[in-house]
Write a structure and sequence with these properties.
Strand content: 5-15%
Protein name: TRAPPC10/Trs130 N-terminal domain-containing protein
GO biological process, one term: intra-Golgi vesicle-mediated transport
Structural class: alpha/beta
Distance between the termini: 68 Å
Number of helices: 11
InterPro entries: TRAPPC10/Trs130, TRAPPC10/Trs130_N
Number of strands: 4
Pfam family, one: TRAPPC10_1st
Helix content: 55-70%
């Protein structure tokens, strides 16, 4: 009997580790205690983590089926031992899937211990389907638990807003992690909601004139490329590091927030809205920069608006190459035309 491990990964961590003990006919019983120790160590490590599902996939060779005599004898030899040792919570975690035309597939919705009988003959596609369903259920369960916990943390943090020591930048990173989780499972609209709510929170901070977590509106000596770098690129600066360090200017923060929103809109196929959003942002924030025009290099605002509009059009064209615009094409072209006119 040998033991192998595979993992189903989330964007930042594995959420459904899978243990694969494999047996032959001669190792069904006498080698189980050795592998049981390995599985127990793995199971203990996995179970200690928050929002973690797990799956044990027991693989046996065809010769084990022959020597065991009957399906029920086979099932009771090792699989029942795994069930007894590791299905200790209310959610029974044992089931048996068989990849052979000669043995039926048995399914139990509450199990997370799976047995595969490997045959050199034709396989039963339904067995793989059941295994993938179980894996999918584990991913969804772990994701749901993680989201619920993070939503609770966000609500708690937001409830502390009026308390001394509350930090908008820390709150932003916390809530953004919820957005990236939704983005990871292609729930782009749900991810956008998080950024829209963050934008509302930031506007409230501006109204309260409480910018202690930020630097200035814009640094008096902007970086040489600040007026010409691609507007919607989130890699041109270490934005998240600056936010975590409470050392980001309002200029950089607003650009990062806009870039993330536009990236999600593009993934959702809403490119026309990207053009509109960029146009509104350049007009509004351009006016804000002109209020401090004496503190920044000459013609910085004009150069920034011009290059930002052109780079946004270029980025939208790149995104549209893989988008299905069809009837939306005229509106998309009109949105780009407005940006070019703004430039």
């Amino acid at each position: 009997m040998a033991s192998r491990r595979i993992h189903v990964f989330w964007p930042t961590r594995k959420i459904v580790p899978v243990q694969l003990p494999a047996t032959s006919a001669t190792s069904l019983d006498h080698r189980f205690p050795t592998v049981k120790k390995q599985i127990k160590e793995w199971h203990g490590s996995v179970s200690s983590r928050k929002n973690q599902e797990w799956l044990i996939l027991h693989v046996i060779h065809q010769d084990a089926r022959v020597q065991s005599g009957t399906f029920f004898t086979l099932k009771g030899s090792v699989l029942d031992k795994i069930r007894a040792d590791f299905n200790t919570d209310k959610r029974e975690r044992s089931e048996s899937y068989h990849l052979s035309l000669y043995i039926n597939c048995v399914d139990d919705d509450t199990n997370s211990c799976i047995q595969l009988v490997w045959s050199n003959g034709a396989n039963n596609p339904a067995a793989w389907a059941e295994f993938m369903n179980k894996l999918r259920d584990g991913v969804l369960s772990a994701f749901e638990m993680a989201v619920v916990q993070r939503e609770d943390e966000v609500r708690w943090s937001e409830g502390q807003r009026q308390m001394p020591g509350w930090n908008f930048c820390t709150f932003f990173i916390l809530k953004e992690s919820l957005a990236t989780s939704f983005e990871g499972v292609t729930l782009f609209d749900d991810a956008l909601v998080q950024y829209e709510e963050l934008e509302v929170s930031f506007d409230q901070v501006l109204k309260e004139k409480n910018l202690s977590w930020f630097g200035t509106l814009i640094t008096p000596t902007p970086a040489p490329t600040d007026d010409s770098a691609p507007l919607l690129s989130i890699s041109k600066k270490p934005y998240r590091d600056l936010i975590l360090a409470n050392n980001i200017s309002v200029f950089d923060f607003r650009i990062y927030l806009l870039s993330r929103q536009c990236e999600l809109l593009s993934k959702a196929g809403r490119l026309t809205e990207v053009c509109t959003k960029v146009g509104v942002f350049l007009s509004a924030f351009g006016r804000r920069l002109r209020e401090v025009e004496s503190e920044i290099p000459p013609y910085f605002v004009e150069s920034w608006v011009y290059s930002s509009a052109l780079s946004a059009v270029e980025q939208c064209d790149a995104w549209s190459a893989t988008a299905d615009l069809d009837a939306k094409r005229p509106a998309f072209n009109a949105g780009k035309a407005e940006l070019l006119e703004l430039a």
